[in-house]
Give the backbone structure.
Amino acid sequence: MYFAMNTELGVHMKGGVITERDADLCTIRIRAPAGVISADQIKGIGAIAKKFGNGTVHCTTRQTLEIPHVDHTSLKKIEAALEKNGTKIGSERDEIVNIIACPGIERCKYANINTISLAQKVDAKLFGKEMPVKVRIAISGCPNACTSPMLNEIGVIGRVRPVRLPGQCTGCGTCVQYCKEKAIIIRRGLSELVPEKCVQCGVCVASCPFDLLKAEHSHYLVIVGGRRGRHPLIGKEFLMLNSEEQVIYAIDRIVQWVYRRAWSGRLLSEQMDDLHFDKFRTEISAEMAKKYPSEKPENLP
């Protein structure tokens, strides 16, 4: 396990309190797991922004809201108001910041997993933990990757592995038309999957008018060590997992690994080799195989 100091710091030291160019003013970032805020909470935030800010609210790239231009003398009052509204101050520094997610299977026709539920569970367990580096977690329901999970310190992508069932394929080419990866071809009047091109998005499964394509393996791909910014870098594939429980456990273990071994002052993406990521991946794969013997994770190269 990893431990953080329990010292209670003033509100001005919280990660969600961001000093502006005018050092007498602050921007207050609000915690919003998976970007979900109720209509009543939105109304409350509007009232708080009028009272303590300049009446505007800024939507961030991490699915949170910010109240700009708050006078530094009002920090305790705005903290209390946000607490009462159920929208606590968020995070921005070297800690686990707001976990983001796409709409998932609740609303998106392309999604393969319940992203909102997963993000909220991860948030409840890990949000705000102090870390040697900033840790951003993004969850996407499919390989379209709308939340850019591969460009975050920890990313999760919902995928399905398609398989063609025995049956009278007419070679109509509908699946070929819908596959953006050109991973399906028509050979001798039958559809044929090209596995090395398939990104396991599952679009072909939904497209077949004769219901001959099925999802053989629904799973979560976990990625570690990505980054955005001026020099973006795609993270490294970690494990393919079979359940939400496994994903939460794996993310917790990744966070422990980063907390114990990473150095401050460098992005996680710059330390992956120094932290022996490949060895860690092998260790966690073996650990999870023992913990979940009926759902062994797949170790990725």
Remarks:
- The longest strand covers residues 213-224.
- The CA atoms of residues 228 and 241 lie 25 Å apart.
- The mean pLDDT is 92.
- The chain has seven helices and twelve strands.
